[in-house]
Amino acid sequence: MKETIHTDDAPAAVGAYSQATTDGDLVFTAGQIPLTRDGDLLDDAPIAVQTEQALDNLLAVLEEGGASAEDVLKTTVFMADIDDFDEMNETYADYFDESPPARSAVEAGALPKGAGVEIEAVAVVE
Predict the structure, then answer these.
(1) Closest Cα to residue 35, out of 87, 96, 112, 107?
(2) In this predicted structure, what is the pLDDT of residue 14?
(3) Are β-strands 72-79 and 102-107 bridged in parallel, bridged antiparallel, or unpaired?
(4) CB atoms within 10 A of CB 32
(5) How crowded is the C-beta side of 112, counted as CA atoms within 13 Å?
(6) Rounded distance, CA 20 to CA 6, Å?
(7) pLDDT for the residue 28
(8) 18 near 5, Cβ under 8 Å?
(9) In sequence order, what E strands does 9-125 have?
(10) Could you give the percent of the chain with pLDDT greater than 90?
(11) Model pTM score
């Protein structure tokens, strides 16, 4: 049965969606942008800082759903500019250094609130 996941350790949803949903076995996160839980958007920060904030948000949501970085099966990274890939990838690797999940990284025409990166994940609940 579907359950919604919410944590105050990540920014609240900025639309008609949940931070994540689960069926008890898998957690599906919404895309996380570089928005602090206090509502500060880091859209002018370097892409490494934006990636770090998006991943911190992602991990907070996963933790609330009973998963961790080690449990992530797949991520999708949406980027406003694919030329930022190397800088994003360097930061991303710090979070998934051993046995990284499958990943797609794509350039999107525009991201919510003008962010440079948005990251979503699917994880298994252990």
Answers:
(1) 112
(2) 81
(3) parallel
(4) 26
(5) 13
(6) 7
(7) 98
(8) yes
(9) 20-22, 26-29, 72-79, 102-107, 117-124
(10) 92
(11) 0.96
